Amino acid sequence: MAKVTNVLIVGVGGQGTLMASKVIGQAAMIEGLAVKQSEVHGMAQRGGSVVTHVKFGDMVNSPLVEKGEADIILAFEKLEALRWADYLKPGGTLVINDQEIPPMPVIIGAAVYPQQIFERLSEAGIKVIRVNATDLARAAGEIRTVNVILLAVAAKLLEFGRATWEEAVAEAVPSKALAVNLQAFAIGWDLK
Question: What domains can you pick out in the chain, each with its CATH number?
Answer without folding.
Answer: 4-190 (3.40.920.10)
